[in-house]
Design brief:
The structure is a single chain. By secondary structure, this protein is mainly α. It is 64% helix and 7% strand. The chain is built from 6 helices and 3 strands. The C terminus is likely disordered.
């Protein structure tokens, strides 16, 4: 009994069969994904016709998409296209105007001239130097000399008062002596002496007051003289300070005049700058007007060319059909052949085992001499 294996499958036939299934699957998907769509705006559908593929020479199906608008929308589209066409034609007629305007160069000769505010006036920073004329020292030579306390004057005043007082006091002593005698007091008695002692104390107090008055008079005279000196010194200082104040006032007037001059120069420079800015603004405005006039026709033409554009309505989307899987004929054939091959291999393996067993038995019989044919 010999070994056997299954015949090889027809892979070419399986491949052709699978290709035919794939082609049929693709054709089915194409039909599924080309539905007829109807909307209020119009409809969309596909036409087919048989054509020959120039690359392969095979007959193929050619698809043509057809879009049809509703009558009202088609009329509006035709009107828009007609309006756009007319605007384009009108815009084309502007080319001569555009060429004429752009052929003329900018007229800078008749524009307002550029103006500058000029340079600011020189700022004044110097004033007269009044420092040499300031009084930094004072001459008190015209003031009375500084007085000293005059004790001689005090003594003279006291002597004068005493001289005026002595006759009065002598008269008072004589009167008191006469009065005491008339009252019965004897010369040298206790009452007589006490009477004269009391009068002496009063007269001593009057003399002390005279000396005190003389001292006050001397002090008054000293204060009067010192006041006169202070008055002279104050007048000298006031005169010097007045001169300094006059110099300070003069310097202040000079500074005010300098500041006024600088302010006037700054104001004049500001006026010049404002005038220059105004002139330059007029120049820029004139340039802008020339540029606007120069590009007016071009802008009008561009406005006509870029006017309302014609847009087709969009058809609604739909869920496209996915491609289905073709049967795996090659795989099925491969699996079938593999199963047959496995079964054949198993069968062949069984036969080999039988013959192997018989060979073992034959070898044993020959060795024992018991196996016979």
């Amino acid at each position: 009994m010999g070994k056997s294996t299954p015949a090889a499958p027809d892979y070419t036939g399986a491949a052709n069969a699978q290709a035919a299934a794939s082609k049929e699957n693709l054709t089915t998907q194409n039909f599924a994904n080309r539905p007829t769509i109807n909307t209020p705006f119009g409809s969309q559908y596909y036409d087919t016709e048989r054509k020959t593929d120039p690359a392969t020479g095979q007959s193929v199906t050619a698809w043509t998409q057809q879009n049809t608008l509703a009558p009202e929308l088609q009329s509006a589209l035709d009107a828009q296209i007609s309006s756009q066409n007319q605007r384009s034609q009108l815009a084309n007629t502007f080319m001569d105007r555009v060429g004429s305007e752009y052929s003329q160069p900018f007229d800078y000769q008749n524009l307002p001239a550029m103006t500058s505010g000029g340079q600011a006036g020189e700022i004044r920073t110097n004033v007269a130097d009044y420092a040499p004329g300031l009084n930094t020292s004072f001459n008190f030579g015209g003031a009375p000399a500084a007085p000293t306390y005059d004790t001689g004057y005090r003594d003279r005043v006291a002597q004068s008062l005493m001289e005026r007082m002595m006759p009065v006091q002598d008269y008072q002593n004589r009167q008191l002596q006469t009065q005491l005698s008339n009252q019965g007091f004897k010369l040298g008695s206790e009452g007589y002496k006490r009477g004269l002692a009391e009068l002496g104390e009063r007269q001593a107090a009057e003399r002390y007051n005279a000396f005190d008055t003389a001292g006050n008079e001397a002090q008054r005279m000293y204060g009067s003289q010192m006041g006169a000196r202070q008055q002279g010194i104050s007048e000298a200082m006031a005169q010097g300070n007045f001169g300094n104040q006059a110099l300070g006032q003069a310097q202040g007037l000079d500074i005010n005049a300098m500041n006024a001059m600088n302010a006037a120069q700054g104001q004049q420079f500001g006026l010049n700058q404002s005038y220059a800015n105004q002139q330059n603004t007029l120049r820029q405005q004139a340039i802008a007007e020339q540029a606007q006039r120069r590009g007016m026709s071009l802008n009008e033409m561009n406005a006509l060319m870029s006017g309302q554009q014609v847009n087709m309505p969009n058809m609604p989307q739909f869920n496209q059909a996915g491609i289905s899987q073709t049967p795996n004929l090659m795989g099925a054939m491969q699996n079938t052949y593999q199963a047959a091959l496995d079964a054949s291999n198993a069968k062949n393996a069984g036969i080999s085992n039988v013959f192997g067993g018989l060979t073992s038995l034959g070898a044993g019989g020959l060795a024992g001499g018991a196996f016979k044919f």
